[in-house]
């Protein structure tokens, strides 16, 4: 079974069709990118996967339908999205931001962070782990990507 499967996913806002029909499979270990111009439905597709907007069609996580699950329940199952803005708690350290992100996945109990895995995936995190996350916001060129790395980590 794929990790995530979208089958004929459709999203509408009133009479406006945001996502007409998306069928997609994502296997474990695979990275997939949704590409398209503004208004193409990329964010609406991800919001539907997160359970944040109503949709038609099927969203299957590890072969099980997510229909009816609230975003909080999906977060406990490991589904996450980093929206535009990539908000971090700027006065907290990068490490503390990562730890805070584990709370939702572990029902309010901090989980151990696999630091080696996170820093291999996002090297900038290792360089800034003990520093305030606000420093990433002030870094000019790659600040958006750095913040997204912490938010995803």
UniProtKB/TrEMBL annotation:
Pfam families: ABC_tran. Coiled coil: none annotated. Keywords: Amino-acid transport, ATP-binding, Nucleotide-binding, Transport. GO terms for molecular function: ATP binding; ATP hydrolysis activity; branched-chain amino acid transmembrane transporter activity. InterPro entries: ABC_transporter-like_ATP-bd (IPR003439), BCAA_Transport_ATP-bd_LivF (IPR052156), P-loop_NTPase (IPR027417). Residues 20-148 form the ABC transporter domain. GO terms for biological process: L-amino acid transport. PANTHER family: HIGH-AFFINITY BRANCHED-CHAIN AMINO ACID TRANSPORT ATP-BINDING PROTEIN LIVF. Belongs to the ABC transporter superfamily. This is Branched-chain amino acid ABC transporter, ATP-binding protein.
């Amino acid at each position: 079974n794929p990790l995530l499967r979208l089958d004929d996913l459709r999203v509408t806002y009133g009479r406006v069709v945001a996502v007409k029909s998306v069928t997609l499979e994502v296997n474990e270990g695979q990275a997939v990118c949704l590409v398209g111009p503004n208004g193409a439905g990329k964010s609406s597709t991800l919001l539907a996967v997160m359970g944040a907007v109503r949709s038609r069609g099927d969203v299957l996580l590890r072969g099980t339908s997510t229909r009816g699950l609230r975003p909080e329940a999906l977060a406990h199952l490991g589904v996450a999205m980093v929206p535009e803005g990539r908000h971090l708690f700027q006065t907290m350290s990068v490490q503390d931001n990562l730890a805070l992100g584990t709370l939702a996945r572990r029902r309010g109990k901090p989980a151990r962070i696999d630091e080696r895995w996170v820093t291999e995936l996002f090297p900038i995190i290792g360089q800034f782990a003990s520093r305030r996350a606000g420093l990433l916001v002030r870094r000019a060129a790659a600040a958006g990507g750095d913040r997204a790395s912490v938010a995803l980590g």
